[in-house]
Automatic annotation (TrEMBL), chain A:
Cofactor: FMN; FAD
One record GO biological process: tetrahydrofolate metabolic process
Protein name: Sarcosine oxidase subunit beta
The entry's keywords: Cytoplasm, FAD, Flavoprotein, FMN, Nucleotide-binding, Oxidoreductase
Gene Ontology CC terms: cytoplasm
UniProtKB/TrEMBL annotation, chain B:
Domain (SoxA A3): residue spans on this chain: 530-612
Cited Pfam families: FAD_oxidored, Fer2_4, GCV_T, GCV_T_C, SO_alpha_A3
Alphabetical list of InterPro entries matching this protein: 2Fe-2S-bd_N, FAD/NAD-bd_sf, GcvT/YgfZ/DmdA, GcvT/YgfZ_C, GcvT_C, GCVT_N, Sarcosine_oxidase_asu, SoxA_A3
Stated family: Belongs to the GcvT family.
Single Gene Ontology BP annotation: tetrahydrofolate metabolic process
NCBIfam families: soxA
Keywords, comma-separated and alphabetical: Oxidoreductase
Protein name: Sarcosine oxidase subunit alpha
Region feature Disordered, mapped onto this chain: 496-515
Domain Aminomethyltransferase C-terminal positions: 918-1004
GO-annotated molecular function: sarcosine oxidase activity
Organism: Paramylibacter kogurei
Annotated GCVT N-terminal domain residues: 627-897
Record bears the keyword DNA damage: no
C-alpha cells in the first residue's frame, strides 16, 4: 500500500494524479475463509481490521450486499461521545472514542476526527439531576465529562437561545473530548487497511442463506455463490433480524427508521455538537458548513430507508426554539436509515445459539461513535470464541437473565 | 458584455423601474425581472465564487438548477443566505450581497485555492493533514471550515411568520407548463379535485419560450385560455410560486408556497391586508400525484466551461425572450443536439452576433440547423471547444475536432458561450418514494419506468409523470401524454374522463442527439482538470476519473469521494454528466452505474416553513391547570414538568427560592399547606373486565378493591421495571379512576390502550383520560381537616372519611371528591372538583385556611416532604432499571395473581439476585452536607478494567428542615442489611462525603401524623 501524505500528493500532482492506486481491491470471493463478516459497514470493517491487527487473522472476507459504508455508517450525523451511564457502556464507548483519536494515523487515512466537544443540554430539573448523575458516574469510570451552567453553554454556543419560552437552558453535560468525524472516511479507511492486510471486501454480494452442520455454521450462500468459513460474524444493523432468521434464531430487536437532515452550507457559526433531549433534536456544523440535524425515530417498525415527514417537523421546530437563527436557513436534504433497537438501548455483541456464529447488532441510534470499540470487542469474541473483554456483558443472554444495561437516559434522544 | 437589449422580454414591464442594491451598488431593473436577469442586464456577469477553489463564477442557468448565483438576500432579521438569484423576483429596495468572497467578488483572497487546485484533487483531504495528530483540529480544520460554507450565518431571530396548509385532493399536479396545464384540464373536466402548482411566477414553461404553436397560435394564447378555463372550475385550485417539494408514502406530498418573498418589505408594512405568512408548507394527501416537472439542460464538459459568460443555451434563450437580457454580444454555441440552434436563431433575431455553432455531431442537417445556416450562421460539425479563453469573463474559444485530443484549430473571439449537452427529465419527485428509472439510449436520458412506480397502500402506483418529465421532448408528444395522464389520474381516483380533442401543436422537428460526455473525446487529464461537472463544489471530470481509478466505483462512493452532486443544487446539472464519465471510466453502460438516491426536498425549503406556526408560545403549548394564573401572580416560581408548568415554590417578599421552600415545608408540617395537584394524570377505566384488566396493568391486586376505597398501585413494563405509580380509586363496581404521575398521563393512557387494542381486544374495558376535567387540590397538614370543616358541606372526619378512602359530595357548594391520601405523611385530603370550579375552590381554601396559617406550596416542598417519609418518586428512585423489589415495595407486588405485566420478568435470575442495589436512607455524617444528586458510592476497590467499584448511588437528596439534617435516598448493594454502616460518596469536585445507611422513612414511621 502506498502511504498517503502531503508529499505523495505533491508527487502525484506532477503527473496529474494518474498514479494513485486503488484504495481497496475488488476481488471475487474465494471458496473458503477462516472468518466471514457479513456487512461492510463501519462495525463490520472494524471487526475485520482488528481481527487482523490484534489477532493476526487475515484470511477474512467482508461480504456486503450493497456498497461498503452505505448503510447507517454513511447516513448518520457523525457524533462521537462516550458520556454513557452504565459501566459496560462507558467502557466500550470510551475505548471507541480513544481509538478515534488516533484512527487517522493508525489507518493512514484522514478520518477528520474533530474533538470539538459535545454538550447535552438540560432543560428540566429532572434532566439536571440525570446529567449530574452521569457526570458522577463518568468521573469514576475515567470518562472526562463536566456539568456546566447556562453561561458556559452560551459561551460555547453563541447562537443558542438560553431563555426560550418553553424550555429554558439550565445547563448541560459537557464532554470536551467528544466531537465528530467524517463518516465515509471511517469505512473507507478501514476498507483500505483491511484490503492491504489481504482481506477480501466483496461488494454487491447478498447473503441468501446460511449453511449449518450439527448446529454449527459452515458457510454462507450468496448471490456470488457458496462460500465456506470456519467462523461467521453478522454485523448488519437494521437487517440483523433477517439474517438471524436465516441462521435459525431470533433477536430481541426492532428495526425502525431514524432520520437526519442538513441545511445549505453557511459560514462557521457553531463549533461544538449540541444535543437537546427534552425538545428532541441535535445539531452540529459540518466542515462544509451544513448544519447537520437529527431527531427521533419513527414510532413504527419499517425497513424502507426513509422516514415520515412529521418527525422532521418536530425536530426542526425543536431546533428553531433552541437556535432561532436557523429559521432562515433552508433544508437541503433529508434521509433515513434503519436502526436496530434493543429494549435497553445497548448493543448485542457475542455468541449466538448457532455454533461458530457471532453477532454484533443493536447499536440503535448511536452506533457510529462506537465503531472502533465495537470492532475491537467483536474481533476478540470471534478470535477467542468467548464473550469476554469489552463485550462480556453485552451478550444475548442478558435478556434471559434480566441483566439490562439500560441506556435509555443516555440515549434519550436518537444520536 | 451582458446587457439589456431593446426588444423582447415577455415578463418585463419596461414602464416600471425597480431599484435594488447589489454588492453595495445601486442598480436598476424593470418590473418582472428576476435578480438574475437584472444583474445580467446591468452587465454584472460575475455573481459568485465557488465552494472549494473560490473560482469566479457567472450565471449558468435561469431557474432552480442554478449552482453559481447564490446570494445573501435582505438584511438584519430578514437576511437569508444562499438565495438563488434566478428564482428571486426583483422588487424595489431589494438588497443582495455576494457570498464566499473576501474582500470582494472581484478580488477574493480565497482564490489562492484556484492556483493550488492541482494539489487539491478529489479526496485530497483524506490523504493528508494526518500528521501531527493535533494539527487537524487546531490548524487544518479551522482553515478549511472558514474557507467553506458559502453564505453568512443569519444572526438575528426571524421576524417572519410561516404556516401550514392541509389539502386533500384527488389529483395533485406539480408543474405548470403545458403538460401540467393539459393534465389539470383533463383531470378537472373529469370532475376530479385538482391542485395544480407551479414553482415560478409564470405558467407555460418552455413552450412559450421556444416558439411552440398550439392550435395554430402561439402557445401563450393556449396557456392563457387554459388557465382561464381552469380558474372557472370550482374543483381546481391553482397556485404559482409553489413548488412540489417532496413525495412520501401513501400519496403524501409537501408543497412549498412562497407567498411574499417577491414583495418589497414596505408593502407588508403599508398594506395590512397583505399580512400573509412568508412561506406556507402544504401537506397534501393526494389520490394520485402527476409530476409534470419538465427537464433540465445539461452543460457540456469542455475545459473552461465554468468561466463567467458560459451559459446553458436554454438559459440564454430564457433571458433573451423572457427578460430582454443577453449574456453577451458575440455568443459561440456548442451543442450535441438541435435544440441549441433555437438559441442561436433567437440571438441573431435579437440583433446579436453568433460567430459559430460548434456541433459535436458529424452531421447537422435537420430543420433548425438548416434554418440557422440560412440566416447566415456558420455551423461547424464534428467540432468542439478545446478551451474557453478568459479568466473572470469569456474572451474567446479555441476550436478543435471533437474526435481528437484537443489540438486547437482556430481561436474565435467572443464574450459568451451557449452550451447544450441535451436535456434530462426532472424525475426527482417520481423517485423520492421509490419510482424507478430506465435509460433511454436514443435520447440519452433517464426516464421514469411506468412499470415500476412508487406504490401506495393498495399496491398500485400513485405517481404518474407527464410530458417532458416523462421523456417527451416534442410539443405534440407532451400534449398527448399529458392529457392521457390527466385522464388516467382522474379515472384512478373514481372519475369518468371526458372525450376531448388533443390540441394540435407545432414545433420544429429535431434530429437525434448524440451523447457527448466530454469535449473533445480524447481530452487529456490536464484538460479534464479544467472541465467542471459540479460547478458549486468544483468537481471536475478528472475528479470522477480519479475516484474510479482509486476504486470508489459505486456511484454513491464517487459522489461522496468527489462531492459530486452534494452542493445546494443537489446535482441537478452535474449528476448525469458525472455518472456518464464514471461509466466511461469503468467501461460500463450508464444504466449499470445507476443514479444516486433522489431525496426530498426538490429544492431547499426554509426551516421556518417546516416549523410552521409551532414556534414561541405555540411550540409545544404549555398545559395549564385551572389555577395557573393565580400561581403566576402569587409568586409562583415555575419549572417545566412534562407538558405543564408547576410552581417549584412560591416566593414571598423577595425571599430566595431556598428560603421559600424551607418556609413552605415547615408551615405545611406545622399548620397547613395547599398544593395544586391537578397535573396528576387521571384515567377512567370502566367496564365489566376493568378489574381483571387493572390486575394485569398493576403489580397489585386491584379487582378486590372495595368501592369507595383507594389503593396505591405500581405499574411495570414487560421487562419488570417500574414505570409509573399512583393511587387507584374504585368509583363503582365497573369503574376505576387511576391516578398517574404528571408526566405519565398520556404515556400510561397509551400504554393501556396498546394492551387493550393489541392483546386483550376482547376484554370489555374502556379507558378515558380525564386529567384535565378535574382540578385537584391537596390540603395538607395538621390543620387540614379544620380548613375543610370550615368550608363545610361534607363530613370529613376520620370516621366518615378514613385514610385511603374517598367520598363524593359537596364542599362549600361545589361538587367535590376528597380522597384521604397522603404523599407527605401529614393529615391530607386531595380534593377533586370540576376544572371549572378549581379556582373558586382554591380561593375558598385560602380564605377558610387563613386563620389556620394556610400557605400554598410548590413541587420542591412536595419532594422534600415525601423524601422525609421515604416515599419513592418515579424518575428519581426509578430510571428504567429499578424493580419494585429494589425499593422495598414487595408488599405492593401481589403474590396471589397468576400474572401481571412484569411478573415473569421479575423472576429472572438477575432480578432476584440478592446483590441488587436496594433502597435505603442516607444521613450525611456532617449534618449540613447535602450529598449531590446522582453521586455514586464506592468501596475503595478497583475493578479489572481500572474503574472504581461502585456500590450504590444517590437517587434523591435534600436538606430536611423538619429534621434539620441533610437526608438522601439511595440504592446500595446489600443496603438494607447494612444499617448503620458509613459509606463514601466522592463528588466531582474531589471531595468525599460520608453518609450513614439508615431506614428510608426518616419521619414518623408509625404514621401517627397522617392517620388522625
Amino acid at each position: 500500500m502506498k502511504r498517503y501524505s502531503a508529499f505523495a500528493i505533491a508527487r502525484e500532482a506532477a503527473r496529474y494524479h494518474t498514479g494513485w492506486e486503488r484504495a481497496w481491491r475488488s476481488p471475487e470471493p474465494k471458496s473458503h475463509y477462516d472468518v466471514i463478516i457479513i456487512g461492510a459497514g463501519g462495525h463490520g470493517l472494524a471487526t475485520a481490521y482488528y481481527l487482523g491487527k490484534n489477532y493476526g487473522i487475515t484470511n477474512v472476507a467482508v461480504i456486503e450486499k450493497g456498497w461498503l459504508g452505505g448503510g447507517n455508517t454513511g447516513r448518520n450525523t457523525t457524533i462521537i461521545r462516550s458520556n454513557y451511564l452504565q459501566d459496560p457502556s462507558a467502557a466500550i464507548y470510551e475505548k471507541a472514542r480513544s481509538l478515534y483519536e488516533t484512527m487517522s494515523q493508525d489507518l493512514n487515512y484522514n478520518v477528520m476526527f474533530s474533538p470539538r466537544g459535545v454538550i447535552m443540554l438540560a432543560q428540566t430539573e429532572h434532566e439536571i439531576r440525570g446529567y449530574q448523575r452521569t457526570a458522577h458516574a463518568n468521573a469514576l469510570q475515567g470518562v472526562k465529562t463536566e456539568w456546566i451552567g447556562p453561561e458556559r453553554v452560551k459561551q460555547l454556543v453563541p447562537i443558542i437561545e438560553l431563555s426560550g419560552p418553553r424550555y429554558p437552558v439550565l445547563g448541560g453535560l459537557w464532554q470536551s473530548r467528544g466531537g465528530t468525524a467524517r463518516h465515509d472516511a471511517v469505512a473507507w479507511g478501514y476498507a483500505r487497511a483491511c484490503s492491504d492486510m489481504g482481506m477480501d471486501i466483496i461488494q454487491q454480494c447478498e447473503v441468501t442463506g446460511i449453511d449449518k452442520s450439527g448446529g454449527n455454521v459452515t458457510g454462507i450462500q450468496t448471490t456470488k455463490g457458496a462460500i465456506k468459513c470456519n467462523k461467521l460474524g453478522m454485523v448488519v444493523a437494521g437487517n440483523s433480524g433477517h439474517l438471524a432468521d436465516m441462521a435459525g434464531f431470533r433477536l430481541p430487536l426492532e428495526s425502525v427508521a431514524l432520520q437526519a437532515l442538513v441545511s445549505e452550507p453557511i459560514k462557521p457559526c457553531m463549533d461544538v455538537v449540541v444535543m437537546a433531549n427534552t425538545v428532541h433534536g441535535y445539531m452540529s456544523q459540518s466542515d462544509k458548513g451544513e448544519m447537520v440535524i437529527g431527531g427521533g425515530t419513527d414510532g413504527f417498525n419499517n425497513y424502507t430507508q426513509r422516514g415520515s415527514f412529521h418527525h422532521l417537523e418536530e425536530t426542526v421546530r425543536a431546533l428553531i426554539e433552541t437556535f432561532p437563527m436557523i429559521s432562515r436557513l433552508k433544508m437541503l436534504r433529508h434521509w433515513g436509515g434503519i436502526v436496530d433497537v434493543t429494549g435497553d438501548r445497548s448493543p448485542i455483541i457475542g455468541t449466538t445459539p448457532v455454533g461458530n456464529c457471532y453477532i454484533n447488532c443493536g447499536w440503535g441510534t448511536g452506533g457510529f461513535k462506537a465503531i472502533p470499540g465495537s470492532g475491537w470487542a467483536m474481533a476478540e469474541v470471534i478470535a477467542t470464541g468467548e464473550p469476554q473483554g469489552l463485550a462480556a456483558e453485552f451478550g444475548l443472554n442478558r435478556f434471559q437473565e434480566g441483566r439490562f444495561i439500560d441506556e435509555s437516559v443516555a440515549a434519550g434522544v436518537a444520536h | 458584455m451582458s446587457t439589456r437589449i431593446q426588444t423582447g422580454g415577455r415578463h418585463l414591464d419596461r414602464s416600471k423601474q425597480v431599484h435594488f442594491n447589489w454588492a453595495g451598488k445601486q442598480l436598476t431593473g424593470y418590473g418582472g425581472d428576476t435578480l438574475a436577469s437584472a444583474l445580467l442586464a446591468n452587465g454584472e456577469l460575475l455573481v459568485g465564487r465557488s465552494f472549494k477553489y473560490h473560482r469566479a463564477r457567472g450565471l449558468i442557468a435561469s431557474g432552480a438548477e442554478e449552482p453559481n448565483a447564490l446570494v445573501g438576500l435582505g438584511t438584519g432579521a430578514k437576511f437569508e443566505p444562499n438565495q438563488r438569484a434566478t428564482t428571486t423576483e426583483l422588487f424595489d429596495g431589494l438588497v443582495a450581497k455576494p457570498q464566499n468572497a473576501w474582500p470582494s467578488l472581484a478580488f477574493d483572497v480565497g482564490a489562492i485555492n484556484k492556483m493550488m487546485s492541482r494539489f487539491f484533487p478529489a479526496g485530497f483531504y483524506y490523504k493528508t493533514f494526518i500528521h501531527p495528530r493535533f494539527a487537524w483540529k487546531h490548524l487544518f480544520e479551522p482553515i478549511i471550515r472558514k474557507a467553506a460554507g458559502l453564505g453568512a450565518a443569519p444572526t438575528e431571530k426571524d421576524v417572519d411568520r410561516y404556516e401550514y396548509f392541509y389539502a386533500h385532493v384527488d389529483v395533485l399536479i406539480i408543474g405548470g407548463g403545458i403538460a401540467g396545464l393539459a393534465s389539470a384540464l383533463a383531470a378537472g373536466q373529469a370532475g376530479a379535485s385538482v391542485l395544480l402548482v407551479e414553482q415560478t411566477a409564470h405558467f407555460g414553461g418552455r413552450a412559450v419560450v421556444d416558439g411552440v404553436d398550439i392550435d395554430d397560435e402561439p402557445a401563450e394564447i393556449w396557456v392563457e385560455e387554459t388557465l382561464a378555463a381552469l380558474r372557472e372550475m370550482p374543483n381546481v385550485t391553482i397556485r404559482n410560486r409553489t413548488m412540489g417539494a417532496g413525495v412520501y408514502d401513501h400519496g403524501y406530498a409537501t408543497v412549498y408556497e412562497r407567498i411574499n418573498d417577491h414583495l418589497p418589505e414596505m408593502i407588508t408594512d403599508h398594506a395590512p391586508n397583505m399580512d400573509a405568512p412568508r412561506h406556507r408548507l402544504w401537506r397534501v394527501r393526494a389520490g394520485r400525484i402527476v409530476t409534470a416537472t419538465g427537464a433540465i439542460e445539461r452543460p457540456l464538459s469542455f475545459a473552461g466551461n465554468d468561466i463567467p459568460g458560459v451559459m446553458l443555451a436554454g438559459a440564454v434563450r430564457d433571458y433573451l425572450v423572457n427578460y430582454g437580457a443577453s449574456v453577451g454580444d458575440r455568443v459561440v454555441i456548442a451543442t450535441n443536439n438541435d435544440d441549441a440552434y433555437r438559441s442561436a436563431i433567437a440571438l441573431v433575431e435579437a440583433g446579436l452576433d453568433v460567430p459559430v455553432i460548434l456541433d459535436a455531431r458529424t452531421t447537422a442537417d435537420g430543420e433548425l440547423p438548416t434554418l440557422a445556416r440560412e440566416i447566415g450562421i456558420r455551423v461547424e460539425t464534428g467540432k468542439a471547444i478545446s478551451s474557453v479563453k478568459g479568466n473572470k469573463h469569456v474572451t474567446g474559444v479555441g476550436i478543435c475536432s471533437q474526435a481528437g485530443e484537443g489540438a486547437e484549430l482556430e481561436e474565435i473571439k467572443c464574450d459568451a458561450v451557449a452550451m447544450s449537452g441535451g436535456w434530462s427529465p426532472v424525475v426527482h419527485l417520481w423517485s423520492h418514494c421509490g419510482g424507478k428509472l430506465n435509460w433511454d439510449a436514443d435520447q440519452s436520458m433517464f426516464r421514469p419506468d411506468p412499470n415500476r412506480p412508487p406504490l401506495g397502500y393498495d399496491g398500485a402506483g400513485f405517481v404518474h409523470v407527464a410530458g417532458t418529465a416523462n421523456g417527451y421532448l416534442d410539443a405534440a408528444g407532451v400534449m398527448e401524454d399529458a392529457i392521457k395522464i390527466g385522464k388516467l389520474a382522474a379515472k384512478e381516483t373514481g372519475h369518468k374522463p371526458k372525450a376531448t380533442k388533443v390540441p394540435s401543436t407545432f414545433s420544429a422537428p429535431e434530429n437525434p442527439i448524440e451523447p457527448i460526455w466530454q469535449m473533445p473525446q480524447g481530452m487529456s487529464r490536464k484538460l479534464q482538470m479544467k472541465t467542471f461537472l459540479d460547478y458549486q463544489n468544483d468537481v471536475k471530470v478528472s475528479d470522477v476519473r480519479l475516484a474510479a481509478q482509486e476504486g470508489y466505483q459505486s456511484v454513491e462512493h464517487t459522489k461522496r469521494y468527489t462531492t459530486l452532486g452534494m452542493a445546494t443544487d443537489q446535482g441537478k446539472l452535474s449528476n448525469i454528466n458525472g455518472l456518464a464519465i464514471l461509466a466511461d471510466s469503468l467501461n460500463a453502460e450508464i444504466p449499470a452505474v445507476g443514479t444516486t438516491t433522489f431525496r426530498p426536498p426538490y429544492q431547499p425549503i426554509s426551516m421556518g416553513a417546516i416549523a410552521g406556526d409551532a414556534r414561541g408560545e405555540l411550540f409545544k403549548p404549555i398545559r395549564q391547570s385551572p389555577m395557573h394564573h393565580w400561581i403566576d401572580t402569587n409568586g409562583g416560581f415555575w419549572e417545566p414538568v412534562a407538558d405543564w408548568r408547576r410552581p417549584y415554590c412560591f416566593q414571598q417578599n423577595g425571599e430566595s427560592v431556598g428560603d421559600a421552600v424551607t418556609r413552605e415545608i415547615l408551615n405545611t408540617r406545622q399548620n397547613v399547606g395547599l398544593l395544586d395537584a391537578s397535573t396528576l394524570g387521571k384515567i377512567i377505566v370502566k367496564g365489566p373486565d376493568a378489574g381483571k384488566f387493572l390486575d394485569m396493568m398493576y403489580t397489585n391486586m386491584m379487582s378486590t378493591l372495595k368501592v369507595g376505597r383507594c389503593r396505591y398501585g405500581l405499574m411495570c413494563t414487560e421487562n419488570g421495571f417500574l414505570s409509573d405509580d399512583g393511587v387507584v380509586a374504585r368509583i363503582d363496581d365497573e369503574t376505576f379512576l387511576c391516578h398517574t404521575t404528571s408526566g405519565g398521563s398520556d404515556r400510561i393512557h397509551a400504554w393501556m390502550e396498546e394492551w387493550l387494542q393489541t392483546e386483550w381486544w376482547d376484554w370489555n374495558v374502556y379507558t378515558a383520560n380525564v386529567t384535565e376535567q378535574y382540578a385537584q387540590i391537596a390540603v395538607v397538614g395538621p390543620n387540614a381537616r379544620k380548613v375543610l370543616e370550615k368550608i363545610g358541606g361534607m363530613d370529613v372526619s376520620a370516621d366518615a372519611l378514613p385514610f385511603m378512602a374517598f367520598k363524593d359530595g359537596e364542599l362549600g357548594g361545589i361538587k367535590a371528591r376528597p380522597y384521604r391520601i397522603s404523599f407527605s405523611g401529614e393529615l391530607s385530603y386531595e380534593i377533586a372538583v370540576p376544572a371549572s370550579q378549581g379556582q373558586a375552590f382554591w380561593d375558598m381554601c385560602m380564605e377558610a385556611g387563613a386563620e389556620f396559617g394556610i400557605q400554598p406550596y410548590g413541587t420542591e416542598c412536595l419532594h422534600v416532604m415525601r423524601a422525609e417519609k421515604g416515599f419513592i418518586m418515579i424518575g428519581d428512585e426509578t430510571d428504567g432499571t429499578v424493580i419494585p423489589q429494589d425499593l422495598g415495595l414487595s408488599w405492593a407486588v401481589s403474590k396471589k395473581k397468576d400474572d401481571f405485566l412484569g411478573k415473569r420478568a421479575q423472576q429472572r435470575s438477575h432480578m432476584v439476585d440478592p446483590k441488587r442495589w436496594r433502597l435505603v436512607g442516607l444521613k450525611s455524617v456532617e449534618p449540613n452536607e447535602v450529598i449531590p444528586d446522582g453521586a455514586y458510592a464506592i468501596d475503595g476497590t478497583v475493578r479489572d478494567n481500572g474503574v472504581k467499584h461502585m456500590i450504590g448511588r444517590i437517587t434523591s437528596s435534600y436538606f430536611s428542615p423538619t429534621l434539620n439534617h441533610a437526608i438522601a435516598m439511595g440504592l446500595v448493594e446489600n443496603g438494607p442489611e447494612r444499617m448503620g454502616d458509613i459509606i463514601d460518596f466522592p463528588t466531582t469536585d474531589g471531595r468525599v462525603i460520608k453518609a450513614e445507611i439508615c431506614d428510608p422513612v426518616f419521619l414518623d414511621p408509625e404514621g401517627t401524623r397522617q392517620n388522625v
